[in-house]
Queue: 2 jobs
Job 1
Amino acid sequence: MNDSFIFGLPSVLFQIDNVRLIYNFTSRTTTNSPGVTIRVPGFGNTTSVEFLDPSEASPGHYFNHIVTTSLLPLGYVRNETVKGVPYDFRKAPNELHQFFLDFQALVESTYREAGNKSVVLMTHSMGGPMALYLLHRVKQSWKDKYVRAIVTLGAPWGGSVKAWKVFAAGDDLGVYVLPAHTLRGMQRTSPSTAFLLPSTLFWEKDEVLVSVPGKGNYTVHDYERFFHDMEFPEGAAMRQDTGSLMGQLEAPGVEVFCLHGQGVSTVESFYYKEDKYFPDRPSLNYGNGDGTVNIRSLRGCLRWAGKRLRIGPKRRIRVEGTKQSQPVHHQEFPGIDHMEILKDDSVSDYITTVMKTINNIR
Ligand SMILES: *[C@@H]1O[C@H](CO)[C@@H](O)[C@H](O)[C@H]1NC(C)=O
Ligand SMILES: *[C@@H]1O[C@H](CO)[C@@H](O)[C@H](O)[C@H]1NC(C)=O
Ligand SMILES: *[C@@H]1O[C@H](CO)[C@@H](O)[C@H](O)[C@H]1NC(C)=O
Ligand SMILES: *[C@@H]1O[C@H](CO)[C@@H](O)[C@H](O)[C@H]1NC(C)=O
Ligand SMILES: *[C@@H]1O[C@H](CO)[C@@H](O)[C@H](O)[C@H]1NC(C)=O
């Protein structure tokens, strides 16, 4: 009989005009624009994570391909042994307290409904750090009982330079989660973008990621100065609120299947040809990644297996004590970008194999 399966990933459906958040420097939290209420629909139901677009039109397909090709053929049933866990992806974990309580309760109820069978968590993009945030905060005995494994797709374990570019240029997030046009105009106000800025655990203190003539160079230690220079104090505050939520990226303490694309041109740093272009018109330098997340961040899960992390032809960074005894499986998919990973057949075949192994199906 199958283990159950839970998706942890973002999904919010809303009017584009209404997605802006307003930051309150006193409470250090965000609220919707006046008069706007945003509801995260269908918690537990898979519909909200299979389709981002209520019309279920093809461009809005999200987890639908994986559910249809990897899970249903193995006997999984929507809303019974497959559940969806949508959240307001504009917010970072510090503002999603109720979500994590609901998420934990859903894991427990799904376990019971399935006849006391542990669940597999599956995430895309920021869903990976979100699930890790929960796993950091529950007891090992809870994980041993309820969580069979976690499968992460394209998780930005150490953030992404693209998030920084989003704050600067304010344009398409290219997206952790949704097609760009859905998001335009909101990313700068989203604490989740600050949460996903490149981490000091993954970039070194002498690596210049942003360079502005007449202003200077910025590394991952210079967010405060950067946001000051672009006269965006909310950015600095939101980074302070969210920059340490992942701790030292301690291991999840459950078996990991870490899947991601690579070999896709990804923003690695940016600079300004003249200071009059700052901050809206950066010039971009590209490197390896999945088009949204840099390769070193995607490979962050390797720290838990204790492997050395190669981050470039010359540099290596030291791996801290974040290893775990549970296996860490790592699989890269060349040429597959951040969103394609949800639709690619080699990925869904891999997931099918993983799920068969977990369920002892030949
Ligand atoms: C900001 O938060 C503080 C403290 O919670 C509250 O008293 C204040 O009314 C809020 N400001 C606005 C504009 O909502
Ligand atoms: C899940 O949500 C969809 C769309 O809102 C709805 O049509 C469907 O009936 C729901 N499924 C269950 C089992 O509640
Ligand atoms: C899932 O289906 C059950 C009935 O089988 C229903 O009670 C529940 O509301 C559904 N949940 C969602 C989120 O659709
Ligand atoms: C699941 O565990 C509970 C508590 O230990 C027990 O009462 C129940 O009978 C178990 N259910 C199944 C299907 O084994
Ligand atoms: C900024 O960094 C570049 C190399 O990336 C270096 O050539 C330049 O001197 C630096 N400028 C300042 C002001 O530190």
Job 2
Amino acid sequence: MSPLSLLDYAASVDSLVATEDHPALPSRSAIAHAESSLPNKLPDLGFGFDALKEHLQRDITPALNGGALSANYYGFVTGGGTPAALFGDWLASAADQNAQVHAPNESVASDVDDAALRLVLQLVGLDENLFTGRVFTTGATGSNIIGLALGREYAVAAAGRRQNPPANPSVAQLGLHKACKAAGVRRVQILSSMAHSSVYKAASVIGLGHGSIIALPRSAALQNHGSLIYAGEVNTGRFATSGDEMLKIRALADTYGAWLHVDAAFGLPALLLPQTPEYAELTSGVANIELADSITSDAHKNTVQVPYDCGLFFTRHLHLQQTVFQNAPFPIPDLGAIPSAHNLGVENSRRLRGLAVYASLLAYGRGWHREVIQRQVALARRIAEYIVASPHYELLPTPEINKIFMIVLFRAKDETLNKTLVERLNQSGIIYVSGTQWAGKPAARIASWNEFYYMYIENSASVSGLARPRTRLSGGGAVQEGTFVVVPIVLSNNWCALPTIVGSQ
Ligand SMILES: *Cc1c(COP(=O)(O)O)cnc(C)c1O
């Protein structure tokens, strides 16, 4: 790879992210056209790279949604990719390093991954000497599988140690049935308030099953038996614990031999927020998180601004992690100080995921990444204020602005409209929001991860106050009774579109 090709790529990244006025969703006809362009048969003779590029540009790209390119795409928690992150991500693919083994004399790849993970810990203020078990994953789902697998190993062994005579059975070695029998455990419970759907998947994958998850009210007590604990809620973005509750849960976990896992997929960056009254509900939600045995987060959501396929996993129990994820019947000693990633997670061969994280964190530093989170909170709260003030909408679960992090959940008060609200918003092509359910009724969910992205491009020397909207909205023109119009809300210089209903439906 010549230095020239790196520069060419950097230039192409700049032109990509500088695209203006990108729609939130592609038109139906663009999607139909793209679908019809997909070949049914593999050609014997390829049509060549140039023609391929043309095909992607002409047929496929216009049919992709505005996830990274539209200022009004508020679906999922997609996060952004800074130019530096895109550059790092591309370099990881182009250089195609296999970062599974720490091979200090062969490549610096695993050092980069580890440096990136340490930078993330420093970003959010967690002790890198405490969380020595750390690995990149494909996403928070992958991280939750690791966390629950470690919890299963830990909780069964802890129950075994309470036997008379004590046993120390390993699920990794004996399998779940034999280990539970040796430990006198008849069932393993996963206690959680508001578990994310991926935790159910993780419970299934690790052989405990969906039925092992017990949904608790926020302050229920732990029961005996091998237990794992989990915290977080995705629809409202609210935190499962606050203040010193983690201290109490930690004490309970220690008493009963439970493993404490925190799913901070998009909650972790709340650790970046200043300790001011404005953010008190949020910083309290992540208080004492370092007491967890393991923590899940997602760099590809909002913890770091990198493209998809980048989850984070941290644990204070490196040795246990290496026991569960050991990649051979007998341990192969690591070379050098950094533990090989193939003994830490599900994958063996792995891309150099850390490079994008490394690039974004070093290029823009803690200050900029903190500012992004503050802007996300500010935008979400501005939208929430609008909803609370509107006679037509209801903020869910409660109208408390100070609890809003970066998710705004709401519904239309008019039941008939509410049934089609998300569809109508998304069909407008102006804004994209996620549809969900709350208390048995349809609800809309806006995730404000999005508006920061353009700021850096505008002026790389100073990012604050220079944001410019990608999409300028006129307010919908003349407003007619009973129509559905889009009203722009201005937040400093960033725009967000929200629907309002004028008159009765
Ligand atoms: C998004 C999310 C997950 C799943 O993360 P993926 O990156 O999609 O695998 C898990 N838990 C919570 C709380 C989430 O928000």
